[in-house]
Write a structure and sequence with these properties.
Chain lengths: 256, 423
């Protein structure tokens, strides 16, 4: 029988289904919508066909109360998933829609420390989306414009709302789009680097979450942080769900 | 039957607003406390105290004042309660632990101030705390900057007396503190009109020592695995000690400790043996602030000790009882109180030693550093605590939070991830 991992975030839901051998049979990502639990059930399909259902993410407790057999935090889920995809991984950087975190692993892959951003959208996917709106560009084009642009203007505002008006006024003042896009990416990149530095960057670093899926962005981050590499899995939004499913493969008895 | 509404309105309280405050508490208490499995029987008394928190004890205070007695409100564990009682007054703790009072506090205080201060001031301004309303004198102290300046604001609403607490622990600071305690004694004598005699003070010193020992005895039982009493319940007992009649409190706490000891003898616990054991260290948790303990314990770990002012800092160290003269007794009081290791002092190496000792003694698996938002002293001191604990391989995590519920989801994730790390 198969194992289902389900990552219920505040913005998206991801599922991963593994067969007995631990191979990924299916993976899917979708918006959480107004009723995430219902959406999660729909995505999962026939719940009785799974040997275990492991929930993670913001909605894990709700899922556990409803249909899941186990739960783990997104910290552990991302650690398991990243380590599975990159067995030498020592640091996980996860930037999702509404939070970001850094997880430190030891040689055996056990979580030894972690840090999460505090109560604030700055430094998350939401920040990038809003800035891209201010620039009038889709996310990918914002990254492309930033990579092609130059100049060293900086955003002064830490707050997402003020940063957006700053972007708009920079454009109105005649700053080139590329330079403003750079300012946006540099702002979130420097913030991320601070988060990483607070735990100490131990390579290899695996970059997961929705923001890692934006084409060109991981390379931009690596360049600016002076890192040789940020390892990005093929479907970075799926790593949490994958980790949850992997936990289900190993777990012998129900937890929580 | 006492007519409490009359009693409250005689105290000048805002009854409507007070109804809103008290209507929320039973629900929260049910969820956080009464639903815990396997609680000791002797917790019944403390449940009753909370259920009647604005009535039974308040009636006692009112009766005491009717007979000409005085009530003093305190905000810090440095204030020597022995002196207040030896002069015939009753002491009550006034630290605010509820979000309910924060908006009222923010009417006069900056928003980026510690919630404990905002709630305490808000409680007075809103006229919804009968303890505040019953106080003839508020005793402040010069600890953190926020509180130091808040006394000036509170002074507009009630008489305030401020004790000048040193910020260092050199011999000259001890001497200064001893001097402060002498001034305090004079002020309290003036308030009550009663002279403090060595006999009366000796009696109160013994009583408060017994109260500390009762708490110590209860805490000792938390060293056992499985732990016989939850962290939430133990925290509640300490919180209640700030309000209750000391003699009754000692009896009830001794009874609870005895029950916990019997549980240890029969191997009975409130968490399965081997459950992760957490030490909480940091800023105080005033009633009804049970937020962090609730998150930790509903995630399956036991809080086994609090290195806080609503924990060990309140009851560790006894006052020497051999003093015969006031001079000797005041010196003994000064010495005992100055042993408290609060981050308001610089440097504060004693706190690190306390944490190491407690980690050992309570067989702690991980330390959670509790920092009320905008409490800078404790926030800065985290640097040293984290470094020292990590150097010894003891996992530690800091949570910075206030009284609101908005960050509960994130806190839960962080606490659960921390526990996953320990398991
Ligand atoms: S933390 Fe410091 S200032 Fe606050 S009650 Fe404790 S000793 Fe007093
Ligand atoms: S918790 Fe910190 S900021 Fe708040 S009253 Fe106590 S010492 Fe002051």
């Amino acid at each position: 029988m198969t194992v289902l991992g389900i990552d219920i975030g505040s913005r998206t839901i991801a599922i991963a289904i593994l067969n007995e051998k631990g191979e990924l049979l299916a993976g899917q990502v979708s918006d959480s919508g107004p009723r995430p639990l219902e959406r999660a059930r729909e995505m999962a399909g026939n719940l009785s066909s799974f040997r275990r259902i492991v929930a993670t993410g913001y909605g894990r407790h709700g899922a556990r109360a409803d249909f899941a057999t186990d739960l783990i935090t997104e910290i552990k889920a991302h650690a398991l998933g990243a380590r599975h995809l990159f067995p030498s991984c020592r640091t996980v950087l996860d930037i999702g829609g509404q939070d970001s975190k850094v997880i430190r692993l030891d040689e055996q892959g056990r979580v030894v420390d972690f840090i999460m951003n505090d109560r604030c959208a700055a430094g998350t996917g939401k920040f990038l989306e809003i800035m891209a709106q201010g620039l009038g560009l889709p996310l990918e084009e914002m990254v492309a414009a930033a990579s092609a642009g130059d100049g060293e203007i900086t955003l002064n505002s830490m707050c997402t709302v003020f940063a957006e008006s700053e972007v708009v006024s920079l454009l109105a003042a005649g700053q080139p789009v590329g330079a403003v896009a750079r300012a946006v990416l540099n702002s979130i990149c420097d913030r991320t680097q601070n988060l990483l530095l607070r735990l100490g960057i131990e390579p290899p670093v695996v970059f997961t979450g929705g923001v890692a899926a934006i084409p060109g962005l991981p390379a931009y981050f690596a360049r600016r942080m002076g890192l040789p590499d940020l390892l990005v899995p093929p479907r970075p939004q799926l790593v949490g769900a994958l980790g949850a499913a992997l936990y289900g493969m190993k777990a012998k008895k129900a937890t929580g | 039957m006492t007519d409490y509404r009359k009693l409250w309105s005689d105290l000048g309280m805002d009854l409507e607003k007070h109804d809103r405050l008290t209507s929320a508490l039973p629900l929260i208490y049910e969820e956080v406390y009464l639903q815990q499995p396997g609680r000791p029987q002797a917790m019944e008394y403390f449940d009753l105290v909370v259920a009647e928190i604005h009535s039974l004890r308040i009636a006692e205070l009112v009766e005491h004042r009717r007979r000409g007695g005085k009530v003093c409100g305190v905000f810090c564990v440095f204030v020597p309660l022995e002196i207040i009682r030896a002069a015939g007054a009753i002491a009550v703790g006034l630290c605010g632990g509820s979000q309910f009072w924060v908006p009222d506090g923010e009417r006069v205080l900056p928003r980026n101030l510690c919630p404990l201060i905002k709630a305490s001031v808000g409680a007075r301004l809103s006229g919804t705390c009968p303890y505040f309303q019953s106080c003839d004198l508020l005793i402040g102290e010069t600890t953190c900057d926020g509180k130091k300046k808040a006394w000036e604001v509170l002074g507009e609403y009630a008489p305030v007396y401020v004790m000048d607490l040193p910020q260092m622990k050199r011999p000259r600071d001890l001497a200064a503190w001893r001097g402060e305690i002498g001034l305090f004694l004079a002020r309290i004598e003036e308030l009550t009109g009663c002279r403090v005699t060595p006999e009366r003070l000796a009696e109160e010193i013994r009583l408060q020592n017994r109260l500390r020992q009762a708490l110590e005895r209860l805490y000792q039982t938390r060293k056992a695995d499985p732990v016989p009493i939850s962290g939430k319940d133990a925290l509640l007992v300490t919180q209640v000690s700030f309000y209750d009649d000391p003699r009754r409190f000692i009896d009830k706490t001794e009874a609870l400790a005895a029950e916990a000891e019997a549980r240890i003898a029969s191997g009975q616990g409130v968490f399965p043996s081997g459950a992760p054991r957490i030490l909480v260290t940091g800023t105080p948790m005033a009633i009804p602030n049970w937020k962090l303990h609730h998150i930790i314990e509903t995630a399956g770990a036991a809080v086994v000790c609090e290195e806080t002012c609503t924990g060990t800092r309140f009851f560790e160290h006894q006052v020497d009882e051999t003093g015969r003269t006031l001079e000797e007794q005041l010196q003994a009081l000064a010495e005992r109180y100055l042993k408290i290791n609060c981050s308001c002092f610089t440097p504060n190496p004693g706190r690190l030693e306390d944490i190491f000792r407690l980690v050992e003694a309570y067989r702690v698996d991980g330390v959670i550093y509790y920092n009320l938002q905008f409490c800078h002293g404790y926030a800065v001191e985290y640097y040293a605590v984290e470094k020292a604990l990590k150097a010894r391989g003891i996992p530690v995590m800091k949570v910075e939070t206030d009284y609101s519920e908005e960050d509960t989801g994130q806190l839960r994730t962080r606490v659960e991830a921390f526990l996953e790390m320990l398991r």
